[in-house]
Structure formats: structure tokens, C-alpha cells
Amino acid sequence: MGEPAFDMVIRGGAVATATDVFKADVGIRGERIAAIGERLPPGRQEIDARSRYVLPGGIDSHCHIEQLSAGGLMNADTWESATASAAFGGTTTVISFAAQHVGMQLPQVIEDYSALAQKGAIVDYCFHMIVSDATEQLVRHDLPAAIKAGHASIKLFMTYDKLRVQDEQALDVLMTARENRAMVCVHAENHGMIAWMGKRLLERGYTAPKYHAVSHPRVSETEAFERLIAMAALIDQPIMIFHVSTREGAAIIRRARGSGQKVFGETCPQYLFMTAQDLDRPGLEGAKWMCSPPPRSRDDQEALWQALALGDLQTVTSDHAPYRFDASGKLSAGPNANFKQMANGQPGLETRLPILFDAMVSKGRMDLCRFVQLTATEPAKIYNLHPRKGTIAIGTDADIAIWNPRRKVTLSDAMMHDRTGYTPFAGRTVTGWPEQVLRRGALIVSDGKLQASAGSGRFLPRTGGPAAEPSGRLAPEMDSRRNFGARLYD
Ligand code: URP
Ligand code: ZN
Ligand code: ZN
């Protein structure tokens, strides 16, 4: 008998990609998928996947890990705890944030954040660079250098006192992104409206977490989307609008895409499964559901599902932003804190896929291919990780989650592996669970146990690529710039 043909064979499962579901064996050699076929020869290791789904590992392209919040508070997770929780939830790649606060130098921010990730990551990773201080040095030198080094996406905030950029700075960053072919992701809410509403609510004694939702009026989302899209049109730069929460917001993206602009959109479980009423709980309990933008209404949920079905929105991410419900997190301003003093965000790396699988596949809202597309393939394509990540094909990294579609699990705080101490989905029973998870051919979760060590996740360098390419149609008012030597893509 010679050597086994494969290191691992996943046998007899229903393999799903963004386009097809088919019964096949998957043969893995080293870190990659080497064969997909019927009756593959034996592997050194075998996994019986009969009556299981064999899916690409999830890609969570929006999660805050070991990062300073907008208010300057460190979030609850380390790279190790966050990416362990990702793995248990079937996610094998994360894109988190190297966050430049005002006064910080971007190269140092990236170096420090890379060291943290290298030490702790269990799944593969890359970063969006949060830019809050768009100095000459940053837009002319630091940002292009970082993009060339493989960090081909940027995040801007249009709100939050400490992180937001003004329109002129946003335009500078959009232009730098265009020249260097990076994606620009944006938290788009109108800062003035939110600050003004918050102040008036507090002045009148409305301090409870539920007023957080009132303080983010729907028009704060729509105004910011329109302004952002106009700025991106001026520069002809592709953008990703993060965490779309309203019916109107989704419609604005639909219209922009319909007119040919490269605008992408994401939403999150917070907006598909929760409403503003979730913040209305006794005492400060509602703070656990506080995130920005806030969850809205059932009508918005339906509109967002429709936008996903139509392709107006392309990804569903967790926006994992973990803050404990104690003095180290949500209650850092004390037990009488008002909603403006509480860190925004919910944990979600671990629950994102099971919650979505249950709604989409088990309950039948969408099919398995769409689930794969929205949670793995599309984020891989938009952020230039595809085809290495986000699908199951010969030659791709063997990042695979093996799902038992019949397993029922009731989610609880205690079963979560991140450090937030709670899940907003506690008590919800889902059908379908990722029982075994492989990252580059290594089984990292099996039998409910983690089998990978901190630091075994790998950095994924990304240079700009097709998804970030501008359309080549400059806004007419920008044409003159060419005459002044600006290097714009045609
Ligand atoms: O509430 C949220 N989403 N917190 C995380 C930071 C952000 O806004 O993305
Ligand atoms: Zn945000
Ligand atoms: Zn976020």
C-alpha cells in the first residue's frame, strides 16, 4: 500500500457553493483542496459527512477585536477569545480594524495591531484601516504605503466625536483609495443630528438605553448615505456602506447601484432580527442591545431581507463589538450611566452564522447557496480574498465548516466563547449547527472543542483588485484634474 492520496477526505457530504449544491467527497492535501469528486481514494484522516452540509468557512468582514472603541474604551475580547468564538460559529476568516485615533500614526497603529493579531489569532485575518486623522502625511504617504503592504481597505466614520472625518477629509481619503485601488467602508450617520437629538433627550431626563434608538433618527442614516454616495461619485471611488439599518437606506443603495455607481452594502443580524423595542428593558439591561445604528422596526427587517434577496446588499456581517455588561464595558460610567455614556455594540462573531442559517436555510427564507454567498463568497470577492477564500474549489484554502442541518441548539450566555459575558440571542433555539470546522486543512473545532492554538491564524495580505476598481466614469467636474496630473484610472 502506498501513501494515502490525501491528508484528509471529507466524505459523502452535500457540498455547497454560492451557485451549486452537489454530493461529493472533498480531498485535502496540505492546506488546500486538492480534489472534489465521487469515491475519492482514502485520506490519512477521514470525516464522515453523510447527511451533513460541507460549506466554505464563513468570512466576517466587519468585527471589532481588541480595539479601542469610539469612546476610547478597549473592547472585551482578545484576538484569541474573539477568533475562538468565530471558529465555534463556523467562521474561518475575519476582517477587523486597525484603528487610528486622532494623533496616532497609522504605521505604528498597524504594527501594534499586527503584533496582537499574530500572537492571538486562531482564524485567518486581515484589517480595514480606520482613518480618523487624515493628515497630508497620511493621505500622501502612510495610506498608499499601507495599501501596497496588503491592507487594501479603509474605514471612515461620519459620526462619533473622536473618530469622525469631515467631508473634505473623506474626499482626500476617497481619492487616495482610488489612486491606490483600495475599498472604502463607511459608518454613515449624520453626526450633528445624533448629537443634537442626544443632547435634547438628556436635557429632558430621557437617559435610559431605549433613548439611544430615538437619538439616531432614520434621516441621520439617509442623509449620510446620500452625502457619502455623492462624494464617492465625485471621485468615482467604490464604497461599502456598513450596517444598513433602514428601508430608506437600502433603497438609496439600490438607486445608486441602478445608476451604475459602485456602491456595496452590508447589514447585520442586529437589523434583521432585532427592533428598537429590544432596548426597552428594566433598568439598564437594554444597554446590551445598544449598537449604532440602532435596531429599527419589523418593517425595516423585511425591507433588509428583500434588499439581500435582490442583491442590493451583498454581505451580512456581525459588527462584533464586545463590551461586558459591567464596569469594564457598558457600565464604565457607573450604574446610573445615561445612554450617551455607554459603549455601542453587541457581540456576534459566534452567533452570526447559526442565526442566519436557521432563518435562511432551516426556516426557508433563502436557499443554501444564498447563505454561502452572503456570508462567505461575496465578502471574499468584495475584499479581494477570493478565490483563495470564500468558496469550495480545487486549489482554494481548505476552510470548511461541516454543518449538521438537523441539530437544534438553544443559545445561551454560558456557551459563548468570546469575553462579552452575554449574547443578545440567549434563549433562541436555532436549527443547524457547524459541528466541525477546518482552517487551511486543519480541524480547528470538533466535538465542541477548540483544537487550534493562539497565533495559528495567518495574515492575508490584500492588494487592490477588481472589486475596488473604479468604473472609469469620472464625474465631469473631476475631468480637469487630469490636466493637473492627477493619476486617475480610466
Ligand atoms: O455599535 C457599534 N456598531 N459599535 C461598533 C463601532 C461601530 O459603530 O462600528
Ligand atoms: Zn459602525
Ligand atoms: Zn462596526
Explained architecture:
The structure is a single chain. 31% of the residues lie in helices and 21% in strands. The chain is α/β, with parallel strands linked by helices and 490 residues long. Strands 1, 2, 3, 4, 5, 14, 15, 16 and 17 form a 9-stranded mixed β-sheet that branches. Helix 3 packs parallel to helix 4 and helix 8 (247-258) runs parallel beside helix 10. The protein is globular and about 80 Å long. It starts with 5 loop residues before the first strand and ends in a 7-residue tail after the last helix. N-(aminocarbonyl)-beta-alanine (URP) binds at residues 64, 187, 291-292, 319, 321, 344-345.
- Round the Cα radius of gyration to an integer and report it: 22 Å
Order of helices and strands: EEEEEEHEHEHEHEHHHEHEHHEHHEEEEH
List each distinct ligand once: N-(aminocarbonyl)-beta-alanine, zinc ion
Number of strands: 17
pLDDT averaged residue by residue: 95
Provide a count of the helices: 13
Beta fraction of the residues? 15-25%
Q: How does the major sheet shape up?
A: 9 strands, mixed
List segments where confidence is low: pLDDT < 50 over at least 5 consecutive residues.
Answer: 478-490
Structural shape:
globular
Range of helix content: 25-40%
Find the structural class using helix and strand composition.
Answer: alpha/beta
Query: In whole angstroms, how far apart are the ends?
Result: 58 Å
